[in-house]
């Protein structure tokens, strides 16, 4: 049976208690709560796309990182990160099995009870380098984003071992 939420209880359940969108869905809701419905003027409207505005993300071949093209590849990465914030990579040499394991570990994290995930909520996390949440600034947003996130910033092996969840190390 689905839980019944008013706006305040919903915000508390999702944001403050760390249940997130996954917890909301797992509670059995049958429709998207009003708090998640974006104002019409802020919604993506694919009929208003101008072909001239469509951006082609850069594709960066990482195979040159270990060779004479190292500096060119490095500059391309920096430019793509600064210009677009996103880019495609090829020849990254990451084994498919490792990528599968990474995805599996992410699922393990998000499938944990809220009590375990909420340890990493922004503001109470043992480190500003490790954060779990739903919207980035939920207290200031007109509508919440339909997502949960977990971010871990790598600064050193020592910090990773000290602050990252066990299964993420």
TrEMBL record:
UniProt KW Metal-binding keyword: yes
Key words of the record: Iron, Metal-binding, Oxidoreductase
PANTHER family assigned to the protein according to its UniProt record, in alphabetical order: OXIDOREDUCTASE, 2OG-FE II OXYGENASE FAMILY PROTEIN (PTHR10209), SCOPOLETIN 8-HYDROXYLASE (PTHR10209:SF230)
A GO MF label: oxidoreductase activity
Signal peptide span: none
Non-haem dioxygenase N-terminal domain mapped to chain residues: 57-166
Database matches in InterPro entries: DIOX_N, IPNS-like_sf
UniProt-recorded name of the protein: Feruloyl coa ortho-hydroxylase
